[in-house]
User: Fold Aldose 1-epimerase from Cinchona calisaya.
Amino acid sequence: MVSKASIAYFYAIIGLMLFNNVAAADYDDYINVYELKKGNFSVKITNYGATVLSVILPDRTGKLDDVVLGFPTIDGYKNDSTYFGGLIGRVANRIGGAKFTLNGVEYKLPANDHGNTLHGGTIGFNDVIWEVTSYVRNNHLSLHYRGQDGEQGFPGALDVYVTYMFVGADRLALKMQATPIDKATPINLASHSYWNLGGHGSGDIFSHKIQLLASHITPVDDKLIPTGQIIPVNGTPYDFLESRTIGSKFKELPDGYDINYVVDYKDNKHIHKVAVVYESKSGRKMELWSNQPGVQFYTSNMLNDTNGKDGVTYHRYAGLCLETQGFPDSVNHPNFPSQIVNPGETYTHVMVYRFTSN
Assistant:
């Protein structure tokens, strides 16, 4: 069987040869790590998958810790099934039955998750090399990827851009944009970092307190495909409208959280507060703001003794993901917000993290 990494190498090499005229043997020469640093706040990103490798923050005493899970080397990300820190696309989350119909044409996709398509297919945007278009160490990193017509079964070529940037002294912003070139296509990008504000090797996230400004969810079937319903969280273990610990209702939900929340938009601002996470031992707090209608809350239920950075072994519930996004399987649910973007239009997804400690 051909490995995922080998297939990823093939696509990346072909893309580089087409657009950069490089030899296949030089593939690894185009993978690099870039640091953004301002004071004691630093972020490392690789252009392999536009992946966030580390986020280092002070706690209330000034002690620095890396608060995202990850692998000790880039090679770990090439065979990764956890999606640690990756930029997910062309369509993040799940597409039921690994197919959809657009403008009368049925498109069949790789079935890489129990007969469904997950996170863009067998080789998503987290599995390819991105071109660095701009880099200023104390300010930003901008990356570009050209998706091809038919790549992973999706229609149309498109240009995809992501910029990681500092905003002030305590904010990290992501701006993701995609422009179809020749055909209408679904687009739903997401950032897939696993957070543990106590430090990436500090154990489970049960004691983290979280508030989700979302009063509804899109319930799913046993394969995590949305049913098409939108239901309130009131009276369920999914209710985080008031801040409480993640572990407080795990007895009612023993497999953990892996669900799309419908963000409450109360006005027409460009971005809205989505979530607040607080870890009491370190005093670290993370606010998340975005312009997307949904956010996937995932408590790393599928981690299974994964070998991580600094010799740490990650067990289930070692990190939490907050993936702002369009609704899962929107291409098959007309009542969900559309993810179809036409040539001449631009998809824009903004995320802003604010980190403080007290």
